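ARCHIVE CARD
CATEGORY: sequence design from structure
SOURCE FIELD: tokenized fold
FIELD CONTENT:
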């Protein structure tokens, strides 16, 4: 699915959007490719590289608390902050691969619920970039790392970057009473 951002009227917002990417380090080959895809899409959509903040956590389990803490910190600018504005959107990226125990189901459900709760309570878009996979091959495909010509491989991080831009722009417009 390709998200069209060219129809967004308030293109001026793109360059000063602040986007955070919070990612797990577990399943790093998959995750780092997804992070690169998200950054690439953000920059191509007009987000200034200095306004993209990337933070890592050990695993997907830690994503909700990290997203919440990073967003809260962005609400209180400091002298070392590159910008005084809070994040317009946050992309949470991780890759969970099903094993032989119920661990996968518990983590996937808790992380999904936690991230949804955060975006509803904080009114900030949290892009769900947590892949729930049956095997590593699915992850490599979704990170754009597998397959040759004619393969279904596509880096989903690019879609998440575009979704963050779209929702960041719309969120700013909605706050001004403008409905795009």
């Amino acid at each position: 699915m390709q998200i069209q951002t060219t129809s967004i009227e308030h293109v001026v917002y793109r360059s000063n959007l602040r986007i955070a990417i919070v990612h797990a380090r577990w399943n790093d080959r998959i995750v780092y490719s997804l992070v690169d895809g998200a950054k690439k899409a953000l920059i191509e959509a007009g987000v200034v590289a200095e306004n993209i903040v990337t933070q890592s956590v050990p695993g997907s389990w830690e994503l909700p608390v990290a997203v919440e803490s990073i967003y809260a910190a962005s609400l209180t600018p400091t002298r070392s902050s590159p910008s005084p504005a809070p994040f317009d959107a946050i992309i949470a990226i991780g890759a969970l691969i099903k094993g032989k125990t119920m661990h996968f189901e518990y983590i996937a459900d808790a992380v999904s619920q936690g991230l949804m709760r955060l975006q509803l309570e904080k009114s900030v878009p949290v892009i769900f970039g947590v892949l729930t996979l049956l095997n590593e091959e699915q992850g490599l495909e979704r990170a754009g790392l597998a397959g040759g010509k004619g393969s279904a491989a596509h880096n989903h991080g690019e879609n998440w970057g575009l979704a963050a831009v779209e929702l960041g722009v719309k969120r700013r417009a909605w706050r001004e009473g403008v409905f795009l």
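CARD ANNOTATION: Residues 3-10 have pLDDT under 50 and may be disordered. Strands lie at 19-24, 52-57, 89-97, 126-133.
SHELF: design records, drawer C
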